[in-house]
């Protein structure tokens, strides 16, 4: 015979479990297993932006490709410096935004759309997830943490583990950059909370290839600023035949106040000259280097300069857009693969909210959308042959239909 007291305790426990938020249950289980989100215990350091050189690039690549213990802190510092370049940042954002804004659908094995499940992915966390997946192409191997749920059991945010704080070869998350030991994320309880994008070894991304170009551009900008600081305000030359200290001091004071007064009065053979040192060719030297670097960056990430240059021929721009579109489609293919092979299975294990995703797949919705203009053209064409639903026309166009209009041509009486 069962113990009635145990049955009472069991009933009370089941009642509170049903009432408890799903996040609390997940965290309670994690705590009971002695696990927590490693991103909360990482000792992050302040980001220090400094002048990076080719020597830093070579050293960073060498340390990051150490086969036994790859260390990416130095390479990551270089990448942080590269990302300050506005042109590079713009081309990367163009690549990412194209995929983020592409329509998608969730379908079953028969290819039928399950539109009600799209709401699960219409959040900021999904936009961040797409960004992190694509950043693996540019920065190399990327690790994404999916741990935090809201009170409804839905994923509330995703976190990128800094490249300096995980070792993909060993499969561990590091508390301090450069540590040789850490918390495993590929096996055990934490395996259900992490998605690694990229290879374990020697995957440094496109940043490692364009680093010399961006560093050369930064050097050109710095040299241009030095040139402007030194020669942007032309010097003043004073020539005099006087050698007495009193007059020399007077001329020194006049030169000191020249910028404020904009004129001086001399004596005898004294001359005041402002030479033209800054020439047009000097600007071309610096600006030409910067434009060349920007063009190289555009070619690497977009396939050409037509989408970033303010001038271009129509035919040339169309060809370069097609080249860029190949890259956009490649980005979408990668994101689709990661979502179907890694994200969906992880979400099903993460929360019952996502259990309906089991057996479904993610697809990009490449069907051309029906615009209002195209719909009206269809109505005009089909209306001659078929009876259309006025309610559906109202819902799509937003125009209230009051009734059927008499389209017969009126017959006017003949004049006598």
What is the overall shape?
Answer: flat
Classification by helices and strands: mainly alpha
Biggest sheet record = 3 strands, antiparallel
Estimate the strand proportion: 5-15%
The low-pLDDT segments are 16-23, 25-35
In helices, the fraction of residues equals 40-55%
Q: What is the N-to-C order of secondary-structure elements (H for helix, E for strand)?
A: HHHHHEHEEEEEEHEHHEHHEHH
Mean pLDDT: 80
Structural Rg = 34 Å
User: If strands are numbered along the chain, what order do they take across the biggest sheet?
Assistant: 3-2-7
Description of the structure:
- Helix 3 crosses helix 4.
- The protein is mainly alpha-helical.
- About 5% of the residues have low confidence.
- The chain contains 13 helices and ten strands.
- The longest helix has 37 residues.
- A hairpin with a 4-residue loop joins strand 4 and strand 5.
- The strands form four sheets. The protein has a three-stranded antiparallel sheet with strand order 3-2-7, covered by helices on one side. A three-stranded antiparallel sheet has the order 4-5-6, with no helix packed on it. Strands 1-10 form a two-stranded antiparallel ribbon.
List the defining traits of the structure above.
single chain; 416 residues; mainly alpha; three-stranded antiparallel beta sheet; 48% helix; 7% strand
Describe what is shown at a glance.
The protein contains 13 helices and ten strands. The chain is mostly helical. The strands form four sheets. Strands 3-2-7 form a three-stranded antiparallel sheet, covered by helices on one side. It has a three-stranded antiparallel sheet with strand order 4-5-6, with no helix packed on it. A two-stranded antiparallel ribbon has the order 1-10.
